[in-house]
TrEMBL record:
Entry keyword set: 4Fe-4S, Disulfide bond, DNA-binding, Iron, Iron-sulfur, Metal-binding, Transcription, Transcription regulation
Cofactor dependence: [4Fe-4S] cluster
Species in which this protein is naturally found: freshwater metagenome
Protein name, per record: Unannotated protein
PANTHER family per the UniProt record, alphabetical: TRANSCRIPTIONAL REGULATOR WHID-RELATED
Similarity comment: Belongs to the WhiB family.
Amino acid sequence: MAAVETLFHRQQTDDRWMNTAACKGLTHLFFPPPAERPQARERREAMAKSVCASCAVNRTCREFARTNHEYGFWGGESEDERHEAGFRLIAPIGVRARDAV
Ligand code: SF4
């Protein structure tokens, strides 16, 4: 599907809940840098999880990420945790890609 078609067919969602996100300005905790080492990922995701634990929109955020097959850390959940819960990435890589077939 072409990018223009994707935009045309994108379902509009009510994203106002994002205005009260506790992670504003903390993107570096929620999305990995290139070539992130496993130990660094563990530390980063532990910090992200602690931010999510005090976030007022935690449940809405988790459902949004699961429904939209998001990448990164959302709603107290890592990509791996979403995957294990049955919500797969659209284009998985690495270990998750081997499980997807
Ligand atoms: S639950 Fe976590 S990722 Fe979602 S909006 Fe809140 S702080 Fe951000």
